[in-house]
Each structure stands twice: as C-alpha cells, then as structure tokens.
Amino acid sequence: MDTSDSTTSVTAGSDVNGVAGGSDVIDWLLDSDPSVRWQVQRDLLDAAPEVVAAERARVANDGWGARFLDLEDPDGQWAGGALFPADYWGARDTYEPGQPWNATAPVLLVLRQIGIDPQDPRVRESVAKVAATCRWEHDGQRFFDGEVEPCINGMTLGLGAYFGQDVEGIAARLLTDQLPDGGWNCEVENGATVSSVHSTISVLEGLLLHERATGGSPESIAGRRRGEEYLLERRLYWRKSTGEPMDPAFGQFAFPTRWHYDVLRALDHFRDAGGMPDPRLAEGIEMVRSKSQADGSWLLENTYPGRVPFPMEDGDDRPSRWNTLRALRVLRWWDEAATL
After folding, report:
1. Per-domain boundaries in the chain
2. How confident is the model at residue 6 (pLDDT cuts 50, 70, 90)?
3. Who's near 260: CB < 8 A, 6+ residues apart?
4. Band of residue 94 on the pLDDT scale cut at 50, 70, 90
5. What does the pLDDT average to over 238-263?
6. Among the listed residues 266, 280, 262, the one whose alpha carbon sits nearest the alpha carbon of residue 330
7. What's the CA gap between 252 and 241, in Å, rounded?
8. Could you tell me the pTM of the whole model?
9. In the chain, N or C terminus with fewer CB closer than 10 Å?
10. Mean pLDDT in residue range 64-72
11. What is the largest CA-CA distance in the chain?
C-alpha cells in the first residue's frame, strides 16, 4: 500500500453511519496509514474498541509513526534539539524558508496528533529518553518542566499529559499566565496584554489533555472554559472589535498545524472537548462545509514552510486525508447534535 498517495480518486456517495461523504471517501481514508485508519474507525465508523485498538497499535510499528520513532537520536532527541535542530544555530541560511519542524517538540506534537499509542513500549522508551536528556533552548530547562512562553508550555502540557509525564508545574504556570481577556499570548513575558489565538489554542489543547489524564482541578477546568469563551466571542474567525476577519489565513486548513491556529483546528478542539456544540461555532462549521470538494474530500491548503522529517501528504491544493478526516468528524459531531 502506498500511504503517501493522496491523489487516489474519491467519489461522493451515500452516507455511511451518518457520515457525510459516503463510502468511497471512507474507503479512500482507510486506504492509508494506520494513524489515519484507526481514527476513521473510531470517529467515523464506530468500530468495536478492540478493532480500533488493534489498528492503533500498528502506528508505532508500521507506517509514519514508526518512521518518526526511527529518526530519534541515540541521545533521546530528534535532530539534536528541543524546539530547533542542533545545526540550526549559526547555519540558518542553509535551511529552507520558514521554521524547521524536525526537532524533538514538533516531532512529538505530530506523534500525539496522529494518535500513537503512548503505552507502546517503544514509545515509552523514546519519551523516557526525552525526559532524561532534552533541554529547552531558552535556558536549559528540562523538557517536561516547560519554559516561559505559554504557547510552548501549552504544547508541552499536552505532550506530557498524553505521554504520561508529570507536568503539574506547567499547568499551574499556565493558569497564572492567563490574560484578562481569557486567552494566552506567547509574549506575556515581554508585557503582552492581549491574547493570541495561536497561543490560546495550544494551551486549550494542553489543558484538555491534562484534564483527561489527571481529572484536572476546578481552577484548570475554569481556565480552559474561559479560554474557549475567548474563541467563541470571536466566532473562531472574526475580530470582536470590528467584526472583520482576524486573519484570512485562519480560514486555510493545515496539517500538521504546528503552532498555528485555524478554524478547523479550533472546531476539532471543541468536538474533542465534547458536549453540545455552541451556536457561535455555526459560521466555522459552514466554512468547513463549504470547502468540501466535488469528490467528497477536503484539500490541504496551508503547509507551513520549513524542514520536515518527511511529508505525510502530497502538498497544498491536493486532497488531504488528514483534513478530510478532521472535517468529517467535526461535521458529524455538529450534525448529530442538531438532531437531538
């Protein structure tokens, strides 16, 4: 099976278990890497838990997950660094435009997003090496202690919670870093007083994963909900002050999302958090729905430039299994709630 071929023809057909897009789209999604297949089985097909678990178990040993793990350095890092590769410093001119995405933090973030099993022995060994050896470029802090920027700490909180590390110190710090408007900003150390959607979505994802792993606290749950309200007040895309789009790029869907915000990423967070959808998500939902192609797929629209370990899809303006999977599960959540 060629798991990198995103050009496979997909044809819209009748619904499958209530999933808009039809059986041909589902077949196209399933004709892919285990990391896509297990999430399709769980989120779109309601497969039996044992079927989902068996497919998920393949991620660390067969396909993209295994390839990422194979690239870990003997010292327990990827590319010799936490946020940036070791050879990046002093040699930036030799790198592709944009930020390199092949160091430890961006690789672990993708492993989390593709749903690698954190209990897999190979994964546990890899993460243990990160905890023992990896240090942040900021001031040499241990990886799972985090550093000072809320966007990085939000990501690290989610990684630690997902991979079974103690990140209570990061959770506490993020609550103190929450700004009066309800969100977060990576520049809070430099005096920022207005939140950033990029930082906010990173922290929200981290807080949600921390709640799942530990139960959270009344304070952390309240903090997450305040952060979600920050996005909802803007209907995910619109400036609260003027009603104009915050940034047209937020309507362009990327995967991996890296540190960037977009409407599909935000909607997938609210779906993951569960419960009845807030009506203020409606415009975002319609944006997602409007981007469905005639063949039932969604395109990759906004690949962030920079060196990567390897590509998982064929590039912008081509059918994207990741965006199609995420769009379908968001629409399913919304449409099923509308019938209740």
Report:
1. 46-252+262-276
2. very low
3. 198, 249, 254, 302, 304
4. confident
5. 97
6. 266
7. 22
8. 0.93
9. C
10. 98
11. 58
Tokens encoding 128: 């243990």
Q: Enter the tokens of residue 12.
A: 């819209």
